[in-house]
Amino acid sequence: MPPVADPILAALYGAGGGIGALTAGDGAGAIAALRRASAPGEETRALARLARDHGLGRAMERFRAAAAATSDPARALRDPRILEVLLPAMGMPDAVGQGGLAARALMADPSDPKGLLMRLSDKRWREAAATLDLRRRGMDALRDPAVQARLEEGLRRQRWHADLDSSHPGLSDALHFRRRAASVNSAYEILGDPVLRRVVTGALGLPMEIAIQPVETQARAITSRLQVKTLADPRVAGQLAERYLLARAGEAGPAGLAGAPSPLVALFA
Questions:
Q1: List of domains in the chain
Q2: Which of 188, 77, 73 is nearest to 122 (CA)?
Q3: pTM attached to this predicted model
């Protein structure tokens, strides 16, 4: 009798070779990388290494010079030297080119129930405005040495995440999700954070086109597949993050076969 193949090993290494082996292997590598990056002390070591990065040091020098050169926070928030540090450090590298929005959103009142920040679907702007408190403190907030130290650390963290993504797409999303998952209380919080949205909808297999649906419909699509309260369990959050990485590995399969699902995804179904 021929030996019976282990279905997990077959999924991981693609029994018989071919496309399944390639996409599954990438997924297994991404999961291993996530577990390494999540290990105690790994982030601290990575940030310590990046403290010696001359490029990041020069970016902070430009930031400090720009912050010292103007007394107008709205003007500062349109300065590329400010934005190239501030937004990545606040976890919003995708918003660096949105100087106009940054100037309006970060000077808005996060407590105004009818204000701009409440109307924006991306709730990261509200969190950033509340954290920086530019509306009340003005340029003192950007010149504060304690704030600058936190921004410098955030900038190093963002570079670390970019380095991780260069080898395994979506790895920084998965790390962010694992860090934030326990504090999420509703599907609407997931939908209001672009990273949480990508991870959850990707892991659950929801199509990108769901974004054109009313937010209530999107929330129901999530809650019909996931009990949000279970994200407080690190094991559940970790499994969802890994399933997202497997889906991303499937999307990034061999040329001409993008979107082919990794056979590993079935193991998490």
A1: 7-39+169-268 (no CATH), 50-159 (1.10.3700.10)
A2: 188
A3: 0.80
